Known about the structure:
By secondary structure, chain A is mainly alpha-helical. Helix content of chain A is 75%, strand content 0%.
Amino acid sequence: MIGRARHLHDDRLFSCYVAEQSGEHVDSPAAEHLEACAGCRARLSDLARFMDGLRTDAETESDAIFTPEELRAQQQHILRRIEHLGQPARVLSFPARLVRRHLTRVGARIAPRWAAAAAAAGLVIGVGVGILVNFNAPYRAEGPAPSVMAVARPSRAEAPIIAVSGPGTAADDDAFLSEIEAVLRGPHNQELLLFDALTPRESEILAGLR
Amino acid sequence: MSDSRTARNEPSLEAAIASDGARSRQTDVPAISDDTRLAVEIRGLVAAGDMALARDRFAGIVSAHQRRAVRIAYQYLRDAAEADEAVQDAFVKAFLHISSYREAWPFEVWFTRILINGCLDRHKARARRERWFVPSEEASGLDQARYAAVIAPDQNPEARLLARERRTRLAKAIGHLDGRQRLVFTLCHYGDRTPREVSAITGLNESTVRVHLFRAARKLRGLLGGTS
């Protein structure tokens, strides 16, 4: 809308800016209004400043990222790619030919045969390992394993640790905890007493549960 | 931006390419520019099989349009590595399809159309990736580091910080534009194309281009507070 009392609408003002930028002529009613109206001229120059600022920022940013060296490298890369456009890609024919020959000679039965052999081998190994594990399990629980642990530990710890390795009962737990208390009471473990004081006792927990 | 939204907002450039012949007959053809003449010459050389000379001539076209192309691609994609690849692909594609170039439009318009097609594809692919994976900040961080190293080595930290915040705000504001507004704004404002040329590049009506451009500028002014 143009008039003495009214100002140019934003879209008309923007058209004037675009026309100036594109080298087109501004439509004459708008041009006349701009000549007469200082307010609209100020708005137009504000708009132009804003738009020019956007352009300058963007150009500065992209020109800083794409330096002349970068552009030169990019150009060389483009020309190299263009140079290779007409050339056929190199194909290494050896594996393809070998595979094709084998496939035509033996046929597609190879894969199922190998798959069946692998599955049978896996089954045999699995059953064998299962039998071995079941055979050794009771022996390990009752025989050498506790003695190895007992040797590794101090003699005082021998009995409770063997007990822990078996099925857990309340008596075993008590024995284990009393063993820990005995260790804590030792001469070289005074520094652990503070931690021990923070740890709840089993009897306290049981009392809490009851 | 989701894929469906992208598909809704982005103009169909393929349709524009298809209708290019009809469009050029309807509108008055601009005077033939130097790069258009050069492109026609390259087309002739390729047709004659003189590829070495065609490549040599094409180097001139690359150096003439490269800077503007990276500006457009970078402002559209906001990722230096992707912009670099998009520009390279566009030039290679232009050479590959030079035989289909018609001088009805300046070479730059034809080339920008190829470039924008590539950018739109990359934008869609990125949107698809971002739906499945967490987007990485690494690329933009690298761009910022490169920018800081080149543009502001002697500025004080406060000025650098302010400049970075301003760039971030601008990038976010442009990210708020819808697909067509962003495309039109990038081409007109960063690519220095007139609304008529943008109309030829995108296949949109010229008055539609002007409306998108106005709305984009108004939205940016609103988001950025009127001053840049």
